[in-house]
Fold:
Amino acid sequence: METKSEIIRIFIYTFLAFMTMATVLIFFFYFSRKKIIKQEIEKRNLEVNYQKEILKTVILTQETERKRIAQDLHDEISSKLNIVSLNSHLLISPNLSVSEIKEITANINKLTSTALESSRRIAHDLFPPVFEKFGLEAGIQELIVEFKSTNQFDIQYSNQLNLNEFNKNTQLGLFRVLQELLHNTLKHAVANTINITFFREKDTFCLLYTDDGIGFKISEDKKGMGLINIDSRIGLLNGKYFIKTAPKNGFEIKIIFNDL
Ligand SMILES: Nc1ncnc2c1ncn2[C@@H]1O[C@H](COP(=O)(O)OP(=O)(O)O)[C@@H](O)[C@H]1O
Ligand SMILES: [Mg+2]
Structure:
């Protein structure tokens, strides 16, 4: 009798122990799963917010560009054409002396040629014709000449790739990234030398850009429109990039990309 109730007791205890363990396990899995799902949702939210941030920057850049173009057109074209129009009306006024006619025509000529020059410059800033006609290689050469002409730094350029063979979108992406990097060095870095190198690494292509300027402490909130644009351009190329910079230590960006 004694042993029988003992067995039943042991059985009940074991059963209860198993039940408790099972409950603990169920709760453990339930809560850890909930935690994993929560983390997953937080990660997704972060990604969505980042995408939104990029989209906002793209739209903002577009608006800033539009404003700049509108201002350029207004200041350099419309205002001049206005005076040309006034001058040409003057030409039909009666009793003008020959010298007055000469003066007005000279004025019209001068204003139309500056307006023409400005429209060329505006079009060039928007999209360099040399890039369209001769591809990225020529576009980069032109960029280098333009930036060297500021006399702020020297630019060393070397290239092992055939850039013009890349897809047009890859070429344009790389061109815009280089343009922003050069602008940043000019605007912020106080550098003596810039190095631009294109090379092949295993199955991928690389662009290494460095300047020996003042550098900066990199952080998410430090990123302005320029760096966010670089980020989205490289994203569009399915590329990756690594920035190394610190105060007084120059700036380096290595971009790894594939052709599209
Ligand atoms: N080559 C560089 N040398 C030093 N500082 C830089 C360089 N590039 C970027 N920076 C710093 O990073 C900031 C963000 O750059 P960016 O996103 O291009 O915005 P913006 O040029 O409009 O200020 C700059 O304001 C500058 O402080
Ligand atoms: Mg910038």
